[in-house]
Amino acid sequence: MLKFGQKIAIGGGITAAIIVAVVVMASTNIFSHNSGINTTNQNNASTPSTAQNNIVSSTSSSSSRVQIVAAENFWGSLISQLGGTHVQVLSIVTDPNADPHEYESNTADAQSIATANYVIVNGAGYDDWAIKLIGASNNPSQKVLNVANLLDKKAGDNPHFWYDPSYVNQTVAQMYSDLVSIDPANTAYYKQQYVDLNDSLGQYNNRINEIKQKFAGTQVASTESIFVYLANATGLDLVSPPEFMEAVAEGNDPPAQSVVEFQHQIQNGTVNLLVYNAQTVTPLTQNIKAMAAQKGIPIVAVTETIQPSDISFQDWMNAELISLQNGLNAKTLGQ
Questions:
Q1: pTM of the model
Q2: Which of 195, 127, 131, 209 is CA-nearest to residue 166?
Q3: What is the mean pLDDT of residues 224-250?
């Protein structure tokens, strides 16, 4: 698993020269390739439950729309809803069965990024492969949003920014500003899309507040650092050893003392709920999960990328929050 801030080689040993050659040779629109990567163009961003990662017919021709590449589908969903019929969005990392930390890029990714008008990356070491491709393509007219830079984060910081509602709001605001800058002729349209998206995000934000009001201070645990931001937002007391969560996220073996401490928390009933990252599974996290199940501790699965991949960001997040709420209620009721 990739460490925070660790750089990986571009898939297949692609050199900058090969990337440029691929771009020059491309004679068709980048978003028509069939590489297994999902492409999004959502016609009505005010209905966010619409599928996010499929090509949808539009009155606008492909060439007239802003071409956007999002390194991950959680950011791709949001920009697709903002841009509506005036953008064509390709989300690269979408596989619900793979660990996004271990993604390796390919020539199709290089071609897509090189010719996009707008590229969105998570940053902070989460998707260095995309940042390498951006640098190799050397497209001076391209606008790039590095979410980590926007949030004043760096490699080594917890990169799961999409699990923090305040960071999501900041990122969406920057996306809106960037779209207006790239395509000022459609400013009025983007403004309405921005209003609609914020309204739609309201249900997700309201549920976070509901959990905080009812369960603030409740002790919970997580197998990985993906849950840290959301635990803070909901007011839950995340007591699992930070060294354990960070090591798992970085693909390292947790310190022995942190393993003992975590197991003790499970065994003695310190935690009321376990959050389990279903996309970064190791024998050790599976063991922790099994111990929690034996003790009757509710287990809530979360994922790195949108699952299922054809729903909106806010529908995905709201479903996870409902599971969290149900798990906390179950423990409170002694079920």
A1: 0.82
A2: 209
A3: 97
The CA angle 4-113-145, to the nearest 5 degrees, is: 60
Specify the pairing of strand 219-222 against strand 274-277.
parallel
Q: Is 72 left (phi over 0), alpha (psi -120 to 50) or beta?
A: beta
Rounded Cα gap, residues 166 and 277, in angstroms: 21
In sign, the C-alpha dihedral spanning 87, 88, 91, 96 is positive
Single out the residue of 210, 256, 217, 267 nearest to residue 239, CA to CA: 217
Burial of 63 (0-12, 13-18, 19+ CB in 10 A): exposed
**CB neighbours (10 Å) of residue 295?**
13
* Tens of pLDDT, residues 144-170: 999 999 999 999 999 999 999 999 999
**Per-residue H/E/C for the chain:** CCCCCCCCCCHHHCCHHHHHHHHHHCCCCHHHCCCCCEEECCCCCCCCCCCCCCCCCCCCCHHHCEEEEEEEHHHHHHHHHHHHHHEEEEEEECCCCCCHHHCCCCHHHHHHHHCCCEEEECCCCCCHHHHHHHHHHCCCCCEEEEHHHHCCCCECECCCHHHCHHHHHHHHHHHHHHHHHHCHHHHHHHHHHHHHHHHHHHHHHHHHHHHHHHHCCCEEEECCHHHHHHHHHHCCEECCCHHHHHHHHHCCCCCHHHHHHHHHHHHCCCCCCEEEECCCCCHHHHHHHHHHHHCCCCEEEECCCCCCCCCCHHHHHHHHHHHHHHHHHHHHCCC
Query: What domains are there in the chain, each with its CATH number?
Result: 11-199 (3.40.50.1980), 205-332 (3.40.50.1980)
R_g of the chain, CA atoms, integer Å: 20
Q: Would you say how long the chain is, in residues?
A: 335
- Summarize pLDDT for 92-101 with one digit per residue, the tens: 999 887 888 8
Calculated CA dihedral for residues 162, 166, 172, 177, nearest 10 degrees: -140
